[in-house]
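My current task is to audit a protein record that another person submitted. Alongside the sequence sits a line of tokens, each denoting a local backbone shape. Where you disagree with what is written, explain briefly why. This is what I was given:
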Amino acid sequence: MFSGGHTNNMDIKGRVNVPAPFRDVLRHQYGDARMMITLDIFDNCLRAYPLQEWEAFLEKLRQQPSTNRTVRRITRRVVGSAFECEPDKQGRVLLAPTLRDHASLQKTVHFSGHNNTFEIWSHELWQKETGQFDEPFDEGLLAELGI
């Protein structure tokens, strides 16, 4: 499971070091260091899927009617923007320019674990996003979750 947050610097070529705990999850839980990195559906960040989770995501899409407009939009946005990446010996992945542009990635990059995937954020956008934690949570949803 991917959890926690980590900040690393990206070099001018677009390479960034995937946090060691995340690489450990890929190797030990999934048995494969490769991942698919793509645009996030909701936010201006990237989402990284272990290959096994990516296949499960694709299977869910395949089960939906291709005539559904939302399915087509998700397929275009997420599947059409996905790149397979494998960390090099230093643990770095090369983020494609289109991905970097979408997420406004510059030098400082924040990784945020989300159970079976992780997000890759611009440090500045991450600060803005987490600044919203000051807003109250939906009490109905918290009760439904038993929190």
